[in-house]
Hints:
The chain contains 6 helices and 18 strands. The protein has 324 residues and is of the alpha+beta class. Helix 1 (29-36) packs across helix 2. The N and C termini lie far apart (52 Å).
Amino acid sequence: xxxxxxxxxxxxxxxxxxxxATAETTGRLDKVLADALPDLTRSRLKALIEDGRAxxxxxxxxxxxxxxxxxxxxxxxxxxxxxxxAEPQAIPLDIVYEDDWLLVVNKPAGLVVHPAPGNRDxxxxxxxxxxxxxxxxxxxxxxxxxxxxxxxxxxSGLMVVAKTDxxxxxxxxxxxxxxxxxxxxxLAHGVPWPRQGSIxxxxxxxxxxxxxxxxxxxxxSALTNYQTxxxxxxxxxxxxxxxxxxxxxxxxxxxxxxxxxVIGDPLYGRTNKRAxxxxxxxxxxxxxxxxxxxxxxxxxxxxxxxxxxxxxxxALVTKLELIQ
Length: 324
């Protein structure tokens, strides 16, 4: 597939993001598009094609299995996500810091950050709306008010939330220029060598399982620095990981790519039979956002926050310390 170009167009009454490419190989339309658009699943593309949102050489095609020939021009129009207006819900929050501009929360494992299909309520956003009131609505968008970055549902730890549009813009900019820093602690299978280093591997959609990400050629650049804090025999280690980029599942993918996946990771992990499956298990990935540092949007002072690993990871550390 050739280079993709983004544009806007109109399909029906909605404004769409139009993606175009020139086919380089022969194949089914849905598969060719899926290979070119890693952010969209094949099932999503199939639905878009059946909805009349794909063209071959300018002609609308509704059959996902339509054959594509090299040199043909392809487009697919992706409609904007329907805003999911969240409702306030009285969900307890562990607030580490708060002022008129922002707040920092310690998110527990199991809490989804924002509403999405399958998790329409009971999210961090619902809790924030209840805590902050109407002032939060609309900051950063209707579907994700106040959210500057996210953590996976089963990753615990620190997040910063914007309470004003100015704070949202400033914090987003710090993500781009990397002046906002995030440090994670992870319990991983095995012991990496060298004990300290960098994992520089681009990340994209896995060609084998499109529900997963992977270290793949042609993916988006991704860099994780790590150092070993302690080891447990040779079966596990406690690692400190510092993100230099912010890709989906970055730490989980990078550690798995060097053969040391996060313990308990349902997507990228494994069991260690040598140590005993009952020892190297956790109900979620053993990953915690421990340190967060950024420049305050108003005072311009650097702020640093740190929270300890939660009890489930502490309990696992205790078990691992008994391994000889």
